[in-house]
Amino acid sequence: MANHIAVDIGASSGRLIHGTLDGGRLKLRELHRFSNGFRKMDGHDYWDIDHLFREILTGLAKAKREGIRECTLGIDTWAVDYVLLDQTGERIHEVYAYRDTRTNGAADNFHLRMPRAEVYGRTGIQELSFNTLYQLFVHDSGQLKQTESILLVPDYLYFRLTGKKINEFTNASTTQMLNLERNDFDDDLLKLLGLSRTQFVQLAEPGDRFGPLLPELMEAYDLPECELIVVPSHDTASAVVGVPASGENSWAYLSSGTWSLLGAELAKPMNTLQAMECNYTNERGAFRTYRFLKNIMGLWMIQEIRRVSGEACGFAELVQAASKALPFRSLIACNAARFLNPDNMVEEIQSFCRETGQPVPISLGEVARCIFDSLALTYMDCMQELEKITGNEIEVLHIVGGGANNALLSQLTADLTGKTVKAGPTESTAVGNLMVQMIACGLIEDMTAARKLAAESFDIHSYAPGAVENKQELISRWKSLNSQLQ
Ligand code: ADP
Ligand code: LRH
């Protein structure tokens, strides 16, 4: 089939992107874009999952109006969040957003039942306060008892479109409940949550063919004939497929969107004590690879300063304002829990700077500069850890996702890491999603061929590392700031 559509829903926005192979290149066309975000109700943060479902239908109906009568379709979204379904397939609850504060302290409480090192040994997954394991641990036990099936968000969207249930592998790994050796849910972890394996469904691998849209949806909304394909439904897993890299072990990726996910692709997991102490994760990648990476707070902080300032300017203008501000004047420890979901990100950053005896950034440009400088320094630390743990010397860092639009951050990252940075494609998640559909259809041979195609199809900007004034002094300042917080 010549037409392929990726539904890619990040925490900040969703899109339907049409992909075709044209003269040996992958051509993308945006069919539909919509905003996403969580909202507070009764003191908790929730996603509006029905809104997302409706937007998918709207996008598909547009595709049909634009002449696409037949296509394949794959869906990816952010990770960890889930839907509980009862016996009739109805949702038992609204979908909690992972930044909701109900999981504060949940990891520590869970580890009283199974020590942190044992959980890591079994799952290889980094501790993030919002992993599905900890979310389910604090979920209402009455609702868990009523639950027939637990689907993650993209699994649920596949279900709404087809009536069929799966737990897709790459996203299932982010639950922190898959056993690395058994490649299935870990019975002991499930037992500690009071759950049974039968409440999850069959695990499905990216590249599997899935099935058609429900005929009643096609009719009611005048949709094209779609065959759904199982793609890496964790957005970061799709983004990693879309990295235009070549060779083995000499490149790393930074998937740069709401989160910054920095890491390497490995053929085998690395769940050593050192990896655990550095909080590296072994999420499943497409085609039985492992995404050895770390979550860094990312451009969420930029999205939030923009939101609390009334969205007075766009992202490009924020970057421009930041480039006029003094470099490395004030720094923040990006991964501190206080930046996960503060009421007011600007004030939180200002308080941090005040408390640590640094100049307080005032203008939006100064605050943005503080974020970009601090992110680049965090990337530098992460790259050093990555090389140390894996023993691989990295030559190129590929930045993909919306953050690849940010030339200031890309150059800072090259300067501080000392690596060549290659930025693009900005829609790598949709690209990876589409590539897996094309692999499933036999149009692209494998992931290596897919990455070559990505390199040939998109503009990739290279940033050579430049000098940083007083770099050693800056690094000492950065390290001492972070050690004050441990
Ligand atoms: P997600 O999929 O997590 O919602 P995206 O990959 O869409 O995130 O990336 C969104 C981020 O990309 C924004 O937070 C913003 O910082 C960055 N971005 C998007 N467009 C631009 C631009 N023109 N200039 C600079 N940064 C940009
Ligand atoms: C990025 C992402 C990331 C997860 C987080 C919940 O969108 O999927 O990989 O850790 O959201």
UniProtKB/TrEMBL annotation:
Leading EC class: transferase
SUPFAM superfamilies: Actin-like ATPase domain (SSF53067)
Keywords of the record: ATP-binding, Kinase, Nucleotide-binding, Rhamnose metabolism, Transferase
Domain Carbohydrate kinase FGGY C-terminal: 252-441
Superkingdom, taxonomy of origin: Bacteria
EC numbers, comma separated: 2.7.1.5
Gene3D superfamilies, A to Z: 3.30.420.40
Domain Carbohydrate kinase FGGY N-terminal: 5-242
Entry keyword Zinc-finger: no
NCBIfam families: rhamnulo_kin (TIGR02627)
Record-stated family: Belongs to the FGGY kinase family.
Name used for this protein in its record: Rhamnulokinase
Annotated source species: Paenibacillus haidiansis
Organismal lineage: Bacteria, Bacillati, Bacillota, Bacilli, Bacillales
GN (gene name): rhaB
